[in-house]
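User: I'll paste a sequence; please echo it back and then give the predicted structure.

Assistant: Echoing your sequence first, then the prediction.
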Amino acid sequence: MQKYKFGILLAATKDSAFTIGTLLLNILYKMPNQVNVFYIIQDGFLPSDKRIMQEIVESCGGGGKSRVC
């Protein structure tokens, strides 16, 4: 039993939404059901980018959560 949730922090500029999305997919592929939370710090992603990243985590992550700040 885990005492703390396993989270990953990603930081990005507004021009790197594709790169961050690719990182999310790769992490979720290599670590299925192991990451509980993703925090993504960015400086201007479009609302559609944020929505897509949330969908990636929810559909591929086995119940993980993401927070795009």
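The chain has a mean pLDDT of 83. Helices lie at 17-30, 47-60.
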